[in-house]
Amino acid sequence: EDCSQLYLRGYRTSGVFTISPQTGVQFRIWCDMETAGGGWSVIQRRVDGSVLFNRTWDQYKWGFGTVEGEFWLGNDKIHQLTARGDARLRVDLTDWEGNTAYAEYNTFRLSDERHKYRLEIYGYSGTAGDAMTGSDPNNGAPFSTLDRDNDGYSGISCAAGYGGQGGWWFHNCGQSYLNGRYLRDCGFSCPYAQGVVWSEWKNFHYSLKHASMKVRPNNFQISNNKN
């Protein structure tokens, strides 16, 4: 059971729920029951800089922060949510002027730890620009952290030098760093590629105010009927 199934059972208010995406697995998660039809299982959120994201491989594996606030759900849990191969990803972004943009990908799947949480992602639509499957695509990239360099880039460790040392699926260091440092409002003069970055909407010098990542099945049917 995930947030989409809870929505279809009649839950219409966003909040914390306990879900069981696979037999014998249970964890707490924030369910977004309002955005774009609801039913989203939120896997990442940045809102205020209260949680540091320059974490180790094991911390990204298990997750950190609080699901009520800023957090990374954990790569093991994201794998469990997406392992069937039918999940889509939605990224919601807000800048310091209050403007919003989004990106959706109709395929989003994370492999297990044995395969370094390799990312499968494609099928972009939205208003934020494609910062994950355009140039330097994240598709096919394993996850890297400041203590585990899997980016295949000979020059540097992307996780150590870019994105504020936050874990991500780096490929040639990439176009997006939603786990970067929370740099507050420095406009277009933030340190290059260190903040909460979605370069196709702003650029590498702009660090966003809010960002969230959420998943739900592609076959989710939006319903207005409460049980």
Mean pLDDT: 94
The end-to-end distance, rounded to whole angstroms, is: 17 Å
CATH superfamily of the domain at 3-140 and 208-217: Gamma Fibrinogen, chain A, domain 1
Work out the strand percent.
25-35%
Structural class: mainly beta
Report Rg.
16 Å
Largest sheet: 9 strands, antiparallel
Q: What is the third-level CATH name, the topology of the domain at 3-140 and 208-217?
A: Gamma Fibrinogen, Chain A, domain 1
- What CATH architecture label of the domain at 3-140 and 208-217 applies? Alpha-Beta Complex
Total helical segments: 4
Number of E-state strands:
11
Shape from CA axes? globular
Order of helices and strands: HEEEHEEHEEEHEEE
Stretches with pLDDT under 50, minimum 5 residues: none
CATH class assignment of the domain at 3-140 and 208-217: Alpha Beta
The helical percent reads 10-25%
Features:
two-stranded antiparallel ribbon; mainly beta; 227 residues; 9-stranded antiparallel β-sheet; single chain; Gamma Fibrinogen, Chain A, domain 1; 4 helices
